[in-house]
């Protein structure tokens, strides 16, 4: 766990100002500087990180001392306002912190994740709820059916900019006509508690697990206005709201015009 330093050290304050700039990850990214196989390597390492961290994830998220329990409660309220969900798909379900909430209001849930260790914990958490588990890399997985509701939390920021359009095409392919999407992720202010990894094939940060083993993970932090413009260009109608200093939620539907 990495704590934000306190005090008025000028060097630290300058460093914090740089990190808080919502373009920090873009300045660390050099498009075209590395081949596709290096991006694949980064994404493979990201999966390895979450596989390794699965056993400690629930006790270590968020990764800093500024956890916001009130914000999570508000996010849950916003999610529940969309219930009932019908046939539901959760992408990057992880250890199931949200899967259990989805299952309370869905006719059935399909939970997809690349980390079998996380899926094991998720399965234990949801018990006998109507949840089907799929182990798959979301950058290669394709849906076998369509859903009324698609949900993902803390995943969009792990999608490289090069895969943004393709990922949202996947989300569209997962939806039934008239279906909806709900997204939760982190705001640019979170950069202040991350450790940027420079000169990667996509914006990335360094992450550690217990014992000190280090990994790289993609981390792209979108300002709500910026994200809305990008989604509009892809044919999504979105309503994006900030929740506390750390999170945003987004409700989306396909623009059928």
Which features does this protein show?
9 strands; 8 helices; 257 residues; seven-stranded mixed sheet; alpha/beta; two-stranded antiparallel sheet; single chain
Tell me about this structure:
This protein has helices at residues 10-20, 24-27, 36-60, 69-80, 99-103, 116-126, 164-174, 224-233, and strands at 86-91, 106-113, 131-135, 147-153, 175-186, 204-208, 214-218, 236-243, 247-254. It has 257 residues and is an alpha/beta fold. Helix 3 runs parallel beside helix 6. The termini are far apart.
Strand content: 15-25%
Which H/E pattern describes the elements?
HHHHEHEHEEHEEEHEE
Mean pLDDT: 88
| Main β sheet profile | 7 strands, mixed
Strand order of the largest sheet: 3-2-1-4-5-9-8
Overall morphology: globular
Count of discrete alpha- or pi-helical segments spanning 4 or more residues: 8
Distance between the termini: 47 Å
Alpha carbon gyration radius: 18 Å
Enumerate the spans where pLDDT stays under 50 for 5 or more consecutive residues: 1-30
Structural class: alpha/beta
The number of strands is: 9
Helix content: 25-40%
Name the quaternary structure. Answer: single chain
């Amino acid at each position: 766990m990495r704590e934000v330093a306190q005090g008025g050290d000028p060097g630290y304050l300058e460093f914090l100002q740089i990190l808080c700039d919502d373009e920090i990850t873009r300045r660390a990214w050099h498009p075209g500087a590395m081949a596709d196989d290096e991006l694949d390597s980064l994404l493979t390492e990201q999966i390895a990180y979450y596989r390794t961290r699965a056993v400690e994830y629930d006790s270590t998220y968020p990764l800093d001392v500024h956890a916001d329990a009130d914000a999570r409660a508000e996010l849950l309220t916003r999610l529940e306002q969309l219930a009932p969900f019908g046939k539901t798909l959760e992408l990057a379900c992880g250890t199931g912190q949200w899967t259990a909430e989805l299952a309370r209001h869905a006719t059935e849930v399909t939970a997809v994740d690349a980390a079998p260790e996380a899926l094991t914990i998720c399965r234990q958490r949801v018990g006998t709820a109507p949840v089907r588990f799929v182990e798959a890399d979301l950058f290669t997985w394709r849906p076998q059916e369509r859903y009324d509701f698609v949900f993902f939390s803390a995943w969009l920021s792990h999608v490289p900019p090069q895969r943004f359009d393709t990922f949202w095409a996947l989300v569209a392919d997962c939806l039934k006509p008239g279906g909806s999407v709900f997204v939760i992720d982190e705001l640019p202010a979170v950069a202040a508690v991350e450790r940027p990894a420079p000169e990667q094939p996509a914006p990335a940060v360094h992450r550690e697990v217990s014992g000190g083993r280090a990994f790289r993970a993609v981390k792209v932090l979108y300002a709500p206005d910026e994200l809305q413009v990008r989604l509009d260009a892809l044919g999504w109608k979105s309503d994006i709201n900030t929740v506390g200093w750390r999170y945003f939620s987004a409700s989306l539907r396909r623009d059928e015009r």
